[in-house]
């Protein structure tokens, strides 16, 4: 009886809602799609993280009219919104890797030693200097760029990408290009254009909102002893694994941690899951700071939060599917390829889940071109790779390197009027060599100090 009443009530409220809606005038729904402007360029790079910077500088240096767009208000991607993360594999064995890496270093060094400190392979950077140094490098290379612009769709003719639609404050803008390089990290352009993509949803790496703390003069690992164990019941969102690292030449500590690892699997290409991960993480970093103040020892008791990243750092999401998919085996064996366009060094690192030494391995050109769709290349963390293959070599220096190659190929595609997949790889290799890239690297084991 009670149940019948409930159902009848529910039906009425639905009917009520319908009546309310039916009173609205029957006007056609209009979605305003005013295209404010059309921009034409030879090469368009979408996403201005390490890969996008490499691609934009690579393409511009190769002589192409190049346009770079970025969703945030600054360039640098995870390197810039990470509040202090070191840029790994920028100079493995302290040796220059190529033109784009060195141009950024030169621009950072122009700001003095507050901006950058070099180590065995990494640049320890202060992110505010980094943001300015990237602009200096892009200006010198002659790239045009826009920040606060998000690519929201791809323009295609047949199977070819001919441009992207960006969302701006004046509405939607079309950017038409001969070749597009997808450096969005999440293979957005490939996905919008209908190219096949890869994503192992069940095993995505953790996403992490990084944070900076200050007011800690001296810190040693023992100050953190017991913090997680003792604070967990009061602060349930705190992660199990944390790493405190001194920010380059300053008095802050930057904290990398296992983020969402124990809170679920979050696919950031799903807007609901992306929002959930971001919002959980905002509370998580606050709980971490409170935990250190209440349960830490030494100076940690006085720590103060300086800030957290602009957004959660994404270790892994959607990637393109190319005719070659880089795998765990390639990383462990140190594979080499005839169509090499870059190499990846560092660790096989699945964010606080698995860390293992790997060999330096090469990236074939086939892994940066999507199947089925022409006029498009990818670089950085969205190249064609398996879940473990993606984790191996996601260090920023490697992302710069695939970006550099993709930029050169895009410029060549525009100049020769050939699709990226029709180019002669030898020409791309030759151009990379001229830019100081040694492609005869791959297969070597790495010493722990060089790779960490
Ligand atoms: C928590 C964490 C810790 C890490 N630690 C290290 C470390 O210590 N050292 C290291 O070298 N590497 C580290 N990495 C890995 C490294 O940061 C990434 O692999 C690297 O930044 C990937 O570069 P990318 O350019 O491919 O992508 P991203 O850095 O993600 O950059 C992508 C850019 O594209 C923009 N974008 C995305 N979608 C759009 C769109 N539709 N339109 C316009 N712009 C768009 C984004 O705003 C972003 O700026 C870490 C990563 C994470 C998440």
Count helical runs.
13
Helix content: 25-40%
**Which spans of ≥5 residues are poorly predicted at pLDDT below 50?**
1-18
N-to-C span: 68 Å
In percent terms, what proportion of residues is strand? 15-25%
* Domain count: 2
Give your account of this protein's structure:
This protein has 452 residues and is an alpha+beta fold. The protein has 2 domains: 306 residues, FAD/NAD(P)-binding domain, CATH 3.50.50; 98 residues. 32% of the residues lie in helices and 21% in strands. The strands form 6 sheets. Strands 1, 2, 5, 6, 7, 8 and 19 form a 7-stranded mixed β-sheet that branches. Strand 6 and strand 7 form a beta hairpin. The longest helix has 25 residues. Flavin-adenine dinucleotide binds next to helix 2, helix 3, strand 6 and helix 11.
Summarize this structure as a short list of keywords or feature phrases:
452 residues; alpha+beta; FAD/NAD(P)-binding domain; 4-stranded antiparallel beta sheet; 13 helices; 19 strands; 32% helix; 21% strand; disordered N terminus
Brief sketch in words of this structure:
With 452 residues, the protein is of the alpha+beta class. It folds into two domains: 34-201 and 315-452, 3-Layer(bba) Sandwich (FAD/NAD(P)-binding domain); 211-308.
